[in-house]
What does this fold into?
Amino acid sequence: MKIQTLAEFYTLMRQSRNDRQQLTNMHFNKEHIAPEDIQPLEKALTALKNINTRDNQYHLELTEDKTIALDLSYEMNELEKDIFFLTHSPEEFYAYLESLHPDFSAEVNAGLERLKDISFRNFITDRDGTVNNYCGRYASSIQSIYNAVFLTRFAQKVNNAVILTSAPLDNIGLVDISVSPDNIFIYAGSKGREYFDKQGQRHQFPVEPDKQSKLDIFNQQLTDLVKQPEYEMFTLIGSGLQFKFGQTTIARQDISKTIPAQESEDFLNLITNIVQKIDPQKKYFRIEDTGKDIEVILTIENADESGELKDFDKGDAVDFLNKDLHLQLAQGPNLICGDTKSDVPMVPAAMAHSQDTWAVFVTEDPELKTLVQNTCPNTLIVSRPDVLVMILNKKQ
Ligand SMILES: [Mg+2]
It folds into this structure.
């Protein structure tokens, strides 16, 4: 099969999600995994490798006259790892990861030593860049089998395991790219404003009706805008268009810088103007621009007496989930994991319930490292997601 369009690529990746979920279930059901069971993954990898290249980059058709350059390292590397994982012993897989990452063993051993004798009760973690390797496109960042196996093993040892992400929960969201068995994880999307409990029931952080109606108006105008041919590409690059609960994300750039800088800047101004017209007094929305994504976020009132308007952050999510799900964070020990500044508010939020809280961050940024260390005395820093998931996998 020859993959030529972006749409065909996404179809292939969606299929690989189904194959992986089935294989993960087979693993936990202790069923024999035969070479023909692994074949779909091998075929997917071959199809990715056969995508047309130009200037050492993979190219796919976006529209009839536009192509897009893609970095497919995540998709290919994770398929390669999964095929190795399914055809080799755990020791051989460990050695394989060791061969990919310098200091892998040293970091894993140091982490295990640091966390030994702690039986975590609650595990709340960010996904991308923390327990999952980073992928530029959300819709194709399918979880790997080895990753699901390692995380599930750890999740089975704690009372509550929560994946808390800023991405949408479903409709090309967190649950559509996860391959772990059912009834193990609580999946929280939209920064934790909405979640599926372990039984798969949806719950939502209450949003006032007048705020919701403003967001609906904005979403409608944005939908109409990106239907116009000159703006359609913003839905097809990077994060694309994501309607989340209480928040909408639209990409204006991707990591390959597909959009000319001026065009990207103009699009930001256009969105800012639309928001200003709907909310001239800035009562309802905050705009966060990451340079790649424009996030339009509904405000909430600060929990303190000030009643000031603020963004809903992941710390608010930790409190909401603790209350709604009766996590009993107050009893600890709690393990909080993240990889960016936006994950840090989870740490003081958990510590406010129990000082018996541990922060494990995946970062090589000295500033972030210091920030986490200054926030929590029980901090461990590792360099990459594979180190963290191996520590969790091996943790007694
Ligand atoms: Mg992250």
About this structure: Residues 209-301 form a domain with the Alpha-Beta Plaits fold (CATH 3.30.70.3080).
